[in-house]
Amino acid sequence: MNKNDYMYLDHAATTPLREVAFEAYKKTEMDAYANSSGGHALSRKAKNILEESREFISSCFGAAPNEITFTSGGTEADNWIIKTPFVDQEKKSELITTQIEHEAVLASAEDVDKKGYKVNFISCDGDGITNLEEFKQSINPNTLIASVMYANNETGVIQPIKEMSQSVKEINPKTLFHSDVVQAVATKKIDFHSLGIDSAAISGHKIGGPKGIGVMFLKTGYKIPSLLHGGKQELERRAGTVNVSGVAGLAAALKEQQQNLENETKLIENERKIFESKIKEEFDVKIIGENVNRLCHISNIQFNNINSETLMVALDLNGMGVSRGSACASGAQKPSHVLKAMNIEDEVINNHLRFSFGWNIETGDGTKSAEIVTNTIKEII
Amino acid sequence: MSGGVDSSVVAGLLKSQGHDVIGVTMKLWEGPNGEMPETGCCTSADSEDARKVAAKLDIPYYVLDYTASFSENVIDNFVDMYSQGLTPNPCVECNRSVKFDHFIDQANKLNCEKVATGHYAKIVNNNNTFELHKADYLDKDQSYVLHMLDSKKLEKIEFPLGTISKPEVRQIAATLGLKTAFKKDSQDICFVGKKDYRNFVSKRIDVSSKGLIVDKYENEMGTHGGIHAYTIGQRKGVPGGQGEAKYVTKIDVENNKIYIGSKDELTTKKFLIDEVSFVNSIEYENLSIQTRYNSDDVPCNIEKVDESTYQIELKNPTLGVAPGQFGVIYQDTKLVGGGRITSKVLEEAYE
Predict the structure, then answer these.
(1) Rg (CA), chain B
(2) Most CB atoms closer than 10 Å: which of A50, A194, A321, A346?
(3) In terms of CA atoms, which chain A residue is nearest residue B20?
(4) B174 contact A CB<8A
């Protein structure tokens, strides 16, 4: 759909493919379509693209090339890291994570829990920041993995990752500190090593890369079992023909993003602020995480006295796409576990919408979006 | 849009008449993790069918969440009624409290002029008074479950299938190329599906208290494992006599007792209905009543007891009048009003 016809403010769900990523994807698919594991000229061509991309992509996160493995996306990376290391027969190993993680982490943690391991789900405060003390207290000599997202996908609120990774290392240096950085990388430059992150999950399509490609980062020195078994691809870590075109697309998207990050985020933040201030002028609202550190592209707004399901439908009919909580299989959207974990009162838990901006934003979009929302609300109240 | 052929055709007809149509599947019922049920109706496969029909018709389509309202108004009531020895009608409760209440409100907010559903019933505009009539195609008439609608509500509603037969509906669906054209109709209670409603009830409340089954002279005929498993007129699971079949004739909740008797003892002549509402003004002439969905019309007289309670006197005594079900009054094809059959019904019958 043409950007002028429809105001797409659901970039946190996925963001449009960057032109450069599309070109790189297409070029690879056309010119280097061979299996990168093969022994002939075309395979070597694909392999070269794969490894050059790996070098570039890893460097963007301060990682070494052999520390990253390509996956089908963030969900696979999270599943892989969280589920596969729990193999001890005595079930002594423990997992720590938070109540506000993305479903990919939460469901993986629940799977670990079902297998009989102890899992701690750390609570958060009213702003959606994980309770650091509770986190520290739950670390012990049996803690195998601690998994905390860099920033929440529904509120954009940034978690105290460095403090957490440090406390993990102080109490149990053997614990793997994992971070789902899927949402954060959309608008944040992240260096894994300096933050003390031992493993991470990245998804290509949140950056303007293709869907179906992701990265699993695992610091040198750690080893985890494979999730997918089969061929010997990716240094025998992950079986399956490598999605080289996806990797090339991701590398191209990342290159453009890293070059423009400052400008992109400045514009996004500016437009988001304009949007929020105009909405605040008109309506009785609360912006989640307004006074804490959050990602610049997410604005989760609580509209007092307005049902956000009705508002979401009305906005769609008026040409704006936003989201509300997490979608279930049917397409109905439920108030999220994140807002529940934040102890948002029952009376207003159905009054939240997430507006998320993205790399293709233009000056004036904040004002235009606020106008659509304002007019729509006036129609439905 | 339930994902069935009827509401699919309604969407198609309205669209072809030039209306701006928005398709909505009401999510009424869910599993423990928010998933749509896999059996019964309102399943995720049904909403997928509705989505495909909406895509084919090129109309906006949404699944909206009414689970809280449905659970509070329909499910809790369903369970509660059985625990009181009554026979609930969840479709009426759903229409009253969810479909033609919360849903209409939401549609109004979205600036929709009307809400249309695939019910078989007819709205007749009589000088801006809106009347509710039986569907022309009587086999499918659903006016019974819509009796609580009044003229003011009917003004905001369309039932495009009121003049069409089911075979015609399927024909229209096929002509429009809708994939639901030959989909089987669902007959089950949507949240129970093909399973036994007794299990559904016993999972939610403690109904296991055992009691006696007696005849009208209080002679002990057997024992029961909970009154929720019985409804008036039920034959299954009732201890048999010598030759003559026995039926549940009365459920005494207070004393946890089930009364059984012969078919004749099920006959009712007079009973009360309460929570009575009228579509337009009250009528007294040429009335008949249906005492359950799709039952025969029995000629009757009505008499006002108080504001919301009326006494019904049947011209011919009839079988199977069950407290909890609704008595819906008609004047020929016009629906006059209706109310819930009260538990006093059988005391009348015994007199």
Answers:
(1) 21
(2) A50
(3) A317
(4) no
For B37, name the nearest residue in chain A, comparing CA atoms only: A330
The two counts, helices (H) then strands (E), for chain A are 12, 14
What's chain A's length in residues?
A: 381
| CATH superfamily assigned to domain A7-16+260-380 | Aspartate Aminotransferase, domain 1 (3.90.1150.10)
Residues B103, B213, single domain; the answer is no
Residue A328: which of B34, B62, B106 has the nearest Cβ?
B34
- Share the mean pLDDT of chain A: 95
> From CA A189, how far away is CA A20, in angstroms rounded?
20
**C-alpha atoms less than 13 angstroms from C-alpha of B185 in its C-beta half-sphere:** 9
Q: What's the confidence (pLDDT) of residue A1?
A: 54
Catalytic residue check, B94: yes
Cβ A294 vs Cβ A159: under 8 Å = no
Chains A, B: CB contacts under 8 A, how many?
48
Residues B220 and B288 in one domain: no
pTM for this model (two decimals): 0.89
- Residue B253: pLDDT over 90: no
Q: The tokens of A132 are what?
A: 């650091």
Note whether A373 and A320 are within 8 A (CB). Answer: yes
Report the relative pairing of strands A7-8 and A298-303 from DSSP bridges.
unpaired
pLDDT over 70 at B68, yes or no: yes
Residue A104, SS3 per DSSP = helix
Residue B50 contacts residue B23 (beta carbons within 8 Å)? yes
B138 falls within a domain = no
The CATH number of residue B88's host domain is: 3.40.50.620
Q: Is residue B258 domain-shared with residue B286, that is, in the same domain? A: no
Three-point CA angle A240, A244, A248, nearest 5°: 150
Nearest to B307 by CA among B269, B339, B346, B334: B339
CATH architecture of A19-255: 3-Layer(aba) Sandwich (3.40)
Q: Is the pLDDT of residue A42 over 60?
A: yes
